Every structure is written in structure tokens, then in C-alpha cells.
Amino acid sequence: MKIATASDHAGYRLKEDIKRLLAGEGHEILDYGTASGEVSVDYPDWGFRAADAVASHKAERGILVCGTGIGMSIAANKVRGIRAALCHDHFTAVMSRRHNDANILVLGARVLGSDVASDIVRAWLAEPFEGGRHSFRIDKISAYEDETSSTHEAAAAGGRTVVIDHPLVRHKLGLMRNKETSSKDFRDLVQEVAGLMVYEITRHLPLEEVEIETPVATTSVFTLSGKKLAIVPVLRAGLGMVEGILKLVPNAKVGHIGLYRDPKTLKPVDYYCKLPADISERDIFVVDPMLATGGSAAAAVSHIRERGGKRMSLVSLLAAPEGIARFHQEHPDVDIYVAAVDSNLDDHGYIVPGLGDAGDRLFGTK
Ligand code: RB5
After folding, report:
1. Which of 301, 173, 187, 163 is nearest to 242 (CA)?
2. Which atom of ligand 1 is nearest the CA belonging to 10?
3. Contact 303, 270 (CB under 8 A)
4. How confident is the model over 205-217, as pLDDT tens digits?
5. Is the beta carbon of 244 within 6 A of some atom in ligand 1?
């Protein structure tokens, strides 16, 4: 059987024991980490990966381990299609299969010894689902899941807008809004806020563990697992955000896109577009400080998509509700990250209260 495994640091050792047991019995293991008991990590990061693998049928079953098993089971049961059973004994392990058709077994490494855990795993893998009246009960759970997730999907049909309201971001944004702030300070602040935002946005970048030598000993450390990133500023104001982001992710490639509005068709046309050759393999941050009407950001994303871009997020400093609505209408699959959502647009298309024209303030052109 193909089995997905995952643990946090507290469950690491027991997970490794279980992997050995599974391998010895001829199962194929898809291990989603973590890879050490030494470094404290957050169980949802690892549990969700394995649960997703089961939910998407990459694996037939999953086994998750944390200290008590509680956190992992709470996390795994949030994944649609998952029935995760936290079992501390043989009886509940058997019943979780027989009556509940549990597709994930969760164990508490600080609760169970390795022998009891092995017995639970064997019993859980061997026990078939009884079906019959138990199927009706499970069907009710699935029906509820379908109902509620379609409600959530409908609510999210406009896409996800994440406001990064870290105190440092809010403070710096306040400085940027002030019309007395000089171009030089404004430029520095844009870079700083862009960097702080991307620091938050990249918090789920996958890591892998490698062994290194410190001056004192051999140890394992985490390193980014080679996720490819691209930054695409929308000309010209987007340029002001690039350096701040590159400071954090210096290996990201930078594309550029410039748009103008065709006076006849009123449609945005790209007058310049140069993207990394492997854009389709990269996670792309489209950056544009002001999401006002949403027209140019939406058009930029469409043009990048036409040229092969697949996974995109829009990173803006300020947005107007009108811009968010329009952007999400055109690109419901693209998340928007902003430092603040302002009140409205004025008759000239400026965000209110806003910060003025970001391009002019960056480059001192007014
Ligand atoms: C980690 O200390 C611990 O909180 C975690 O492994 C788990 O028990 C959470 O439910």
C-alpha cells in the first residue's frame, strides 16, 4: 500500500520507527517530513502535506505523528475528504477502520511506546471497512463537507485578499502617506515595505534539511528547497518594490511588463514584456504598488499568463475595494497581498486617502 507519513519534531523518532516497520512489510512510503527531531517545527505544516497527499489519492492512507497526536488530528481533519483517527490503543485503531473508514491514523509519540504504536499500525492497516450502515454515516459527513466547502468556495469566488498589517508595515505605510515625505525617503520606505510583505508571504516556502559542518560539529540545517521565484514589476511604479524583495530572495528572476491603454479600444496593451524563459515553472510575484481600478494589474496578469506564467500572486501596497473586486473577478485564482485596503477611488482614479501617485513620488516626476 502507498502510505503518506509526516510528523513534527516531537513525533519524528516514532515516525521513523513506523517507516521502518512499513518498509519491512513491503509498503511504499511517501514521507512528507519533518526530517529531524532536533529542530522545533509546526505540526500543521507537515500534517497538511501528508493529508493533502491522501485527499488527492497520491497515497492510499496516511500516518501522522506529533507529541500527543491531537494537533495533527485537528489539522488533518480540516482537509476535505480526510477522516483522521487519533488512536491510543488497538481497539480504537481497529474500530476507526471498521466503522469510520479512517484514511489517516494519528499517533501521539509522547503517549505511546514504539511497540504499542507498531501494534496499532499493523491492526489499523489490516482492518477493512465494514460498510453497510457505516457508509451512510460517512456519506453524511461527506455531504456536509461538500455543502460547506461549496459555500466557502462561493464566498471566496472573488479570490483571497490578504492584508499584511504587521506593526512595522503599518508604521512605514503611515510615513509614506504623508505628503511631506521626500522622494528619497518614499523610495526607501517602498522597498522596506515590499521586503516586509514578501517576508510574510514566503513564510510557507518549503524547506529541506542538509548536513553541514559548523566550526564545532556536524549538524543538520534547513535550506530552501529550490522553489523558483520570479518578480514581475508593472512599469513603472512596480520597479520601486523590486530591490526590497530581491534583498530577501536574491535568486528570484526579474521580468518586466509595461502597459498602455489603447486610445481606440481602451484596452490595456503591453508595450514591453520580458519574462524569465522558465516563467511557467516559477512562483510569480506581480508587483504594483497601487491597486486602484485593478485594470492594469488584471491585464498584467493576463499577459503573463498568455506567456506561460501559471502560479501568480499580486503584491500591492495599497488597494481600493473597487480594484480588488475587479481584479478578483478577472483572476479568481490569484491571491492579492496588500498592506492596507483604503476607502474608495476618487473621480480621477486615485485611491483615497491613499498616498498619491506612487510612480511620481518614487521618481520625483511631479
Ligand atoms: C509539540 O511540543 C507538541 O505541541 C505537538 O507535537 C503536538 O502534541 C500538538 O498537538
Report:
1. 187
2. 6
3. yes
4. 888 888 999 999 9
5. no
